[in-house]
Amino acid sequence: MSDQRRTWQRMMGPVWRRLRLLVSRGVLKLVDDSLKLQGVQVSLLGGEPAWAERFQEYGYTSHPHPGAEAIVAAVGGARAHLVALSVDDRRYRPKGLKAGEVCLYTDEGDEIRFKRGRIIGVKAGSKLDVTAPEAVFNSSTSVTLNTPKVIATGDIEAAGQVRDGVGTMQGMRNTYNGHDHGGDSGGTTSTPNQEMG
């Protein structure tokens, strides 16, 4: 080997090592979610577990399970400053999405799926809990509740008709307000003194 080639390898060796260490693939071992920027301990290929800062998209955060996979970058090629660029977990990812669909999911099977046809599906395994001072549903056709029971802990107000399988509340009022009874000595009584409002 020529002196020139040995000199070249000696000069470029550290550069190639840094390039090889620049981006690595690893497996999550631990997560520290108490920090302002989440910390993850990852086991990188051919190395001891190391801590990395995990960057996530603004407005979205998650706490992955150990065993999830990560793409980790060494800032400046230095293993002392690692950042996790992406974390995924093939064990729990929903499959079979159509092109263009998006899904937020958990390992327990809960999900919010943005489907084709501008349909949003929400699936909760045990409870859907919404907390707000006021909740407004703007629906131009109808709202359907497929449930054996609807429970309200406060008042129910309706600007329109309230209807069941037999008739409307207004129909009940009309019947009550106009009804009479057979009198004791023949004839009929007058309609009620107090109408149902």
Automatic annotation (TrEMBL):
It comes from the Bacteria. It comes from Halomonas saccharevitans. This is Phage baseplate assembly protein V. Residues 176-197 are annotated as: Disordered. Residues 131-171 form the Phage spike trimer domain. Residues 25-91 form the Bacteriophage Mu Gp45 N-terminal domain.
